[in-house]
Write a structure and sequence with these properties.
Layout lengths: L7 E6 L3 H6 L1 H9 L3 E6 L4 H4 L7 E4 L14 H14 L3 E4 L8 H9 L4 E5 L10 E3 L7 H11 L21 H4 L5 E4 L11 H13 L4 E3 L6 H8 L4 E2 L6 H9 L3 E5 L2 H8 L4 E4 L6 H4 L6 E4 L20 H4 L3 H12 L13 E2 L1
Parallel strand pairs: 1-2, 1-4, 2-3, 4-5, 5-6, 7-8, 7-10, 8-9, 10-11, 11-12
Antiparallel strand pairs: 12-13
Helix pairs in contact: 2-6, 8-9, 10-11
Length: 353
């Protein structure tokens, strides 16, 4: 009897690096049941995709229906994607998208590329575009929603996999940070509503330094002016000094990370570092809070901007985040760094320590 051939599987996650990191456990589940696993990402998510265990190849497509500044629809880009997908000879595809996104545009392209069986969470009627139309459980965390879909598609987590976020081992970065211990503060975010204002972040750095913490400020190349202002004379400024794997190394060696709801918070979780999450309620924390590590959520979950998905704070003074006091920040860092390694789980005020 000929053994059943494992499928060649494509996992689609087209948005940010943080979203791709949250898809990591589902990707591992797919890889455990596939002979070959490729990940189709947008340009912002591709660097994170290359860090996920179980991925054999990362394909890139800048989708016109995703992102803050989506590209125009062109025949050339669509034709190139179709050729790439057809050449991949995929048997199955798993489309991962957030609860407010539609999987149907890419599902149409997957069908036209000849992919045999496509699965996705979908509220809209999919017609012939999906072979498995799965329904997401209400307010399910992004990690668990992706795992639910993978399981329904025939890809459970393999035995021994705890389902937490994970990346390939990052490089050592002591030459960048100097010796441990230190706390990382990452002041930036893809949209301003999800981050402290620069002045508030700078005051937090000063407070952490005055409390005896060595502080490292991180950020991308486009954030060098921000990180220089926030670091001031109180912290080491690594703005623009790291690529994503090096940032993972910096975060892995930190005692804790203070960051908004942004990719580096999820990268910190993927390397096992506790997170003080400055969580603006423009999106729900139960879907995007740091996953699988001790964390404390700070911010007003009942602010007027709750569930609006606003990119810029609609309330003067950005009170949901800038209203967080230094004492709260210091207490959150202490709760995550002054406890033994086997910290517990959920606590009040959105905290998990």
């Amino acid at each position: 009897m000929t053994p059943t051939r494992l499928p060649r599987t494509l996992v689609v996650r087209l948005d940010s690096s943080g979203d791709v990191l949250l898809a990591g456990p589902a990707v591992r589940a797919v890889a455990a049941g596939s002979s070959y696993t490729a990940l189709l990402c947008g340009p912002q998510g591709a660097p994170a995709g290359r860090m996920l265990p179980g991925v054999d190849d990362v394909l890139t497509y800048d989708a016109p229906w995703v992102g803050l500044e989506p590209p125009p629809v062109t025949r050339a880009a669509t034709r190139q994607l179709m050729e790439t997908l057809t050449a991949g000879r995929f048997d199955r595809a798993l489309v991962l998208a957030s609860y407010h996104q539609s999987p149907l545009p890419v599902a149409l392209l997957l069908k036209l590329a000849g992919i045999g069986r496509t699965a996705a969470d979908c509220e809209d009627y999919p017609g012939a575009l999906l072979d498995l139309r799965h329904r997401r459980r209400p307010r399910r965390h992004e990690v668990l929603a992706a795992l639910d879909l993978a399981h329904a598609a025939g890809f459970p987590l393999p035995p021994g996999d705890d389902g937490r976020l994970r990346v390939l081992p990052p490089p050592h970065t002591t030459h960048l940070t100097g010796p441990e211990p230190y706390v990382v503060l990452h002041p930036g975010a893809a949209v301003p509503a999800r981050a402290w204002t620069p002045g508030r972040a700078a005051r937090a750095v000063a407070a952490l330094s005055a409390a005896g913490h060595r502080v490292v400020v991180t950020g991308g190349r486009a954030e060098r002016e921000l990180t220089a202002r926030v670091a001031g004379r109180h912290a080491l400024d690594l703005g623009g000094a790291t690529d994503l794997p090096q940032l993972a190394g910096v975060l892995a060696a930190a005692r804790a990370v203070v960051a908004g709801n942004t990719g580096p918070a999820h990268l910190a979780a993927a390397v096992g570092t506790p997170v003080v999450s400055l969580f603006a309620p423009v999106v729900p924390a139960d879907r995007w809070a740091p996953y699988g590590v001790p964390h404390v959520l700070l911010g007003d979950p009942h602010a007027a901007c709750a569930d609006t998905r606003a990119r810029h704070c609609p309330v003067p003074g950005h009170p949901c985040l800038d209203g967080i006091g230094d004492a709260e920040v210091l207490a959150a860092v202490a709760a995550l760094t002054d406890r033994p390694a086997d910290r517990g789980e959920q606590t009040e005020r959105g905290a998990a320590v």
